[in-house]
Amino acid sequence: MENMQERLAIEKLIFSFSDAFNAADISKTVTSFTPDGINMPNNAPAAKGEKELTKAFGFLFSMAEINIQYVIDEIILNGNYAFVRTNSNVTTVVKASRDQIFLENKEIFVLHNDSREWKISHYIFNNTKTATNL
Length: 134
What we know:
By secondary structure, the chain is of the alpha+beta class. It has one domain: Roll (Nuclear Transport Factor 2, Chain: A). The protein has three helices and six strands; from the N terminus they run H-H-E-E-H-E-E-E-E. The chain is globular, with a radius of gyration of 15 Å.
């Protein structure tokens, strides 16, 4: 039963992260991470910790409207850590030009539970397919 509760809490974190991200809510996006959490985007520098994450997400949200929909493929629990493999469809609208970019991604989330709640420790993704509507 405990394993199922942990899996549900992990799913809730992943989907609340995407909700915050889609809403361009920098604060909620950043607080999905551990204090020393790392975001490692495709073709961009990594951002580590609250200050860098806030700056990186702020820049991203100022440049584009993004909607990401995750599908969880796998959850592996190991003590206070969990590994989540996902795939996603992403629609991006570039604010300056209104160009649309459609992406398919695959992601790995490393989560940590500090005995209170699950948070994202490391997040990495890469594009598997890109299409544009310019």
